[in-house]
Design a protein that fits this description.
The chain has 317 residues and is mainly α. It contains 9 helices and 4 strands, in the order βααααβββααααα.
Length: 317
């Protein structure tokens, strides 16, 4: 049965502190960005107004990402300054929470792409028209179902798959800090984690690809029927195609990073483990920043926050 190493612990700070600094910066940027998304979308709920489906998805997505990046930050910090972290009960809870929030992130993002596809795309099929008419009523159920699926699959990770066995671990010294390698079953981890990654990945890829196809077809139709040299509507469609394609590439890249990180198919390479550790919090932060830039309401909130910070700094200094 295939065996490989999974996690490592830094005992001496120098190189580890650099990794912690990079990861902490990414996490803090992501927490701030998702905090803005959450704050803007929670206002209607606090005011007891009816929440739109898009608002509900963004609210859940921001909450899951704040939780995920907080866990990444805490786990990285404890793994550096506390040698016994991977032997503790906290590690099991951290790992289950890590997987659960990752699954939620993947599902909420996939459902957001699916919702935008149904609302924006234009296909002359009866089934699609029925889906467009019923999507607002189906989406709350799909959100709760995705949470249930994420929780169900994440509970498997509290079993022996991620139990640390001290008698099977080995250590060596590199860059003046000690690395502890722990034996895990790669095949089981890869199979188990794939069950949670593939469904939302397929949904998001299919929905986004069809949306791009629909936007592209409409753009070509507008180009053939255009009378002027510049058409703002056509330019907005082209921009939407580019933004949607960027979101899709980021989503696929994130799913690949998660799979490599959890299944450890990089054969315990220290370099690639560090790269994956740094890449993990980059997607939630980057995707949320893009959401803010592409959403007028979120963009206004971000500019207001920037102005308030600038005024605060001026008053202090």
């Amino acid at each position: 049965m295939a065996q490989s190493s999974d996690y490592w612990i830094y005992e001496v700070p120098p190189f580890a502190i650099l990794i912690l600094t990079v990861v902490a910066t990414e996490c803090l940027v992501g927490i701030i960005a998702n905090g803005i998304v959450m704050a803007v979308n929670v206002v209607p709920w606090v005011q007891k107004k009816a929440l739109t489906i898009n608002t509900k998805i963004l609210l859940l997505l921001s909450v899951s990402r704040i939780g995920f990046q907080s866990i990444i930050l805490v786990e990285t910090t404890f793994s550096i300054f506390k040698d016994s972290f991977y032997n503790s009960v906290s590690y099991c809870f951290s790992k289950v929470s890590f997987v659960f929030l990752n699954y939620c992130d993947l599902w909420f993002t996939a459902l957001l792409s699916f919702f935008h596809f149904v609302k924006i795309a234009n296909f002359s099929y009866r089934l699609f028209f029925k889906l467009k008419w019923r999507i607002s009523g189906l989406m709350p159920w799909l959100l709760w179902l995705s949470v249930f699926i994420s929780l169900s699959f994440s509970t498997f990770f509290c079993k022996d798959t991620y139990t640390v066995y001290n008698n099977n671990s080995r250590s060596f010294n590199i860059f003046n800090f000690t690395v502890y390698m722990v034996e895990t079953n790669v095949v089981n981890v890869a199979s188990l984690f794939s069950l949670g990654i593939l469904p939302p990945l397929i949904m998001s890829t299919a929905a986004t690809t069809l949306l791009i196809f629909s936007l592209r077809r409409h753009t070509l139709h507008m180009r053939h029927s255009a009378t002027g040299s510049r058409d703002p509507s056509r330019e907005s469609h082209v921009r939407a195609i580019k933004e949607t394609s960027c979101f899709l590439l980021l989503y696929i890249s994130n799913a690949a990073v998660l799979f490599l990180y959890m299944s450890n198919v990089v054969n315990a390479s220290i370099f690639w483990n560090v790269v994956l550790k740094i890449a993990l919090p980059s997607y939630p932060a980057g995707h949320s920043i893009l959401l803010i830039q592409n959403n007028p309401g979120l963009r206004r909130a971000w500019k207001q926050l920037q102005s308030q910070i600038h005024l605060y700094l001026q008053s202090r200094f």
